[in-house]
Amino acid sequence: MTPAARVQAAIEVLDAVIASVRREGASAERVASEWLRARRFIGSKDRRAIRDLAWNAIRRCGEVPETGRAAMLALTKGDPVLAALFDGSQYGPAPIRTNEPVAAAGLAPAWLEQRLAASGITGDEGASLLGRAPLDLRANRLKTTRDRLAGVLPVLASTTQAPDALRLPGGTPVETWQAFAEGLFEVQDTGSQLTCSALEVVPGEAVVDLCAGAGGKTLALAAALQGEGHLLACDIDRTRLSRLGPRAHRAGAEVETRLLDPGREAVALSDWQERADAVIVDAPCSGTGTWRRGPEARWRLTPQSLSRYARMQAEVLRIGAQLVRSGGRLTYVVCSLLDEEGPDVVTAFLSDNPGWRAAEQQVGAGTPRGAGLRLTPWDDSTDGFFFATLNRL
Questions:
Q1: pLDDT for residue 78 is more than 90
Q2: β-strand 230-235 against 324-334: which pairing, if any?
Q3: Per-residue pLDDT tens for 359-384?
Q4: CB-based contact 222:251 (threshold 8 Å)
Q5: CB–CB of 362/330 below 8 Å?
Q6: For residue 226, what are the β-bridge partners?
Q7: Could you say which of 40, 150, 301, 337 is the most buried, measured as most Cβ atoms within 10 Å of its Cβ?
Q8: Architecture of domain 135-187
């Protein structure tokens, strides 16, 4: 494909993404994959170039653009080379017209930028949310160590703040490696690894991952248990939870899974009431801390959806707390940088539950925020997280 044809293809991908956002449809990643799958004649190098152009345009636009062309035109500001590709050539985009609509640059929709600013996320800190994420691995302590893993990887990796983490460039095809097939590592952001270490799990404990999803944090906790103790992973999403079994088998981890019915979680967990030494609550959230990986997600949020998240977060924290024995602990986690989903939820819980106290946390990274710590791409080179560990008296 010519460079101009790549630009036009990216515009068409953007049109499909924008349409999906407006109808609350599939993610940008899925939309782009389906668009490219329907055009098998496009080579792998062209596919990467098209995707990069489309994602750069998504990162550039704060509000949902009117069209893919308007989004791509936003990228031409200050880039005369890209602007010159709007040349009307065969398969390329039409020439730029005078006063043609151009999408406005921004961090996020205006209302969401205001929420982020109120939570202390502005300037470079905000811009870093839309950068490019590296790819982090977690050495599986059930089978290896970080140093031994680094020695068998086919490329050079660097270390991060997390004790088991190795960092590679984004897009490295790690799941094709023999070390992955052997369960020597999992893909997991350093920030996510640090939130697990905050729970300070030791072998022999009874541990619950209340919102396990596909099990990234579950497997980190299993490695900390070293095959001693009991680990229960729960979720209300059958599809996501079903992915944990094969992952646990590859990792050599022993995990009990339990599918929960929404609204009846406490009943399904009655046998775990006040039994757990440690519980992690990785609560459903807006995902504002993960925009580096899915920047179009910021177009899908609404004030109403944030209010729903806050209610869910308070409820799952309450359910998780009921599972903790006297003297036990709970770590509350959200991959969000909005105070209303993090510090405010924990503050309200502590106010309503005098039998709990916030713990001092030392994980080698993070900035104090409320009763917990905040991780950001700008300060910590991780995805954005808030987490707080609470002790039951």
A1: no
A2: unpaired
A3: 998 899 999 999 999 999 999 999 99
A4: yes
A5: no
A6: none
A7: 337
A8: 2-Layer Sandwich (3.30)
Topology adopted by domain 194-392: Rossmann fold (3.40.50)
- Whether 335 sits among the annotated catalytic residues: the reply is yes
User: Hey, which residues does 17 pair with through a beta bridge?
Assistant: none
Give the Å distances, CA to CA, from 372 to 5, 20, 156, 222, 296.
49, 36, 34, 24, 28
User: Looking at this protein, which amino acid is placed at residue 375?
Assistant: L
| Number of neighbours of residue 216 by Cβ within 10 angstroms | 20
Tell me the whole-structure pTM to 2 decimals: 0.95
Identify whether the C-beta of residue 199 lies closer than 8 Å to the C-beta of residue 239: no
Which of 61, 211, 234, 335 is labelled catalytic?
335
Residue type at position 113:
E
Contact 26, 8 (CB under 8 A): no
- Alpha-carbon distance 150 to 203, whole Å? 25
What's the first-to-final CA gap in the chain, in angstroms?
A: 65
pLDDT tens across 58-72, in order?
999 999 999 999 999
Q: Tokens 């229960």 belong to which residue?
A: 232
Whose tokens are 């630009």? That residue is 7
Angstrom distance (rounded) from CA 49 to CA 6: 7
**Amino acid letter, 310:** A
Domain positions in the chain are 3-106, 135-187, 194-392
